[in-house]
Write a structure and sequence with these properties.
The chain is mainly α and about 240 residues long. It folds into two domains: about 100 residues, Rna Polymerase Sigma Factor, Chain: A (Orthogonal Bundle); about 90 residues, Winged helix-like DNA-binding domain superfamily/Winged helix DNA-binding domain (Arc Repressor Mutant, subunit A), CATH 1.10.10.10. Helices cover about 55% and strands about 5% of the residues. The strands form two sheets. Strands 1-2 form a two-stranded antiparallel ribbon. Strands 3-4 form a two-stranded antiparallel sheet. Helix 3 crosses helix 4, helix 7 crosses helix 9 and helix 8 crosses helix 9. GO terms for molecular function: DNA binding; sigma factor activity. Belongs to the sigma-70 factor family. ECF subfamily. This is RNA polymerase sigma factor. It holds the Pfam family Sigma70_r4_2.
């Protein structure tokens, strides 16, 4: 699996350029030499460390390749750095950062897509049983690919709701805050998304015991070939 390009101990590569001038959204360079900028980065790292692994995994699940997921996470970190001074209540950082992640995800969905690089080595190609059900690594890899393919058929907002609530374990209230919608809207997205996933498995002749679990979604065969579907829009 591709190693993460960002670990919350040092700035990711794009932020390292802040020391020599980093263009902000208006195209104007600014330096990271001031104490305020350094303190802001340190504050972001401190807040990000506890949720780093979960946020990166979520980014990969939302995207169609590991590279795209890592890029999404990098963009979200950069965006969070730019907006961090506006965060007054640090207890809300988790939901605030995930809301930023979702915003960047939707921006990426609207862009023309580049070709995805298929994931390799998400699971070792070993044949010994793993897990209590005796499934092999190869079987888990296949399950993960099916899960990824199923998720790829959902509109982005439904995919977000499924990943955040059913996989990551966020409450409906938390998902509503992150997506900026009502509770009923989240419940509707979950219901529709689950029904589409159910139909996907039925259409492919898969039994309930072959359905993916959160663990298989973690590595998740995050490379979906092809272009972003035109029907992927907010509902």
């Amino acid at each position: 699996m591709h190693p993460p390009r960002y670990f919350p101990a040092t700035p990711p590569a794009p932020l390292k350029r802040l020391r020599s001038g980093y263009p902000n959204q208006r195209g104007v360079g600014h330096e990271m030499d001031s104490r305020d900028d350094a303190a802001r980065w340190d504050r972001l790292i401190t807040l990000l460390k506890p949720i780093h692994a979960q946020a990166m995994a979520t980014a990969r699940r939302l995207c169609r390749s590991v590279d795209d997921g890592d890029d999404l996470y990098q963009e979200s970190v950069l965006r969070a750095y730019d907006k961090l001074n506006g965060l007054r209540d640090e207890s809300r950082f988790r939901s605030w950062f995930f809301a930023t992640l979702l915003s960047r995800h939707r921006s990426r969905v609207r862009r023309p897509r580049r070709d995805s690089v298929p994931i390799e080595g998400a699971f070792d190609r070993r044949t010994e049983p793993v897990g209590e059900d005796g499934s092999s690594w190869e079987e888990e890899r296949i399950r993960a690919q099916r899960a990824a393919r199923a998720l790829s058929g959902l509109p982005p907002v439904q995919r977000e709701a499924i990943v955040l609530h059913d996989v990551e374990g966020f409450s409906v209230e938390e998902v509503a805050e992150m997506q900026g919608v009502t509770l009923s809207a989240v419940k509707s997205r979950l219901t529709r998304g689950r029904e589409k996933l159910r139909r996907f498995y039925l259409r492919h002749g898969l039994r309930n015991d072959t359905a993916p679990n959160p663990e298989s979604l973690t590595a998740g065969a995050m490379a979906w070939p092809g272009k972003e579907r035109s029907h992927e829009r907010s509902t």
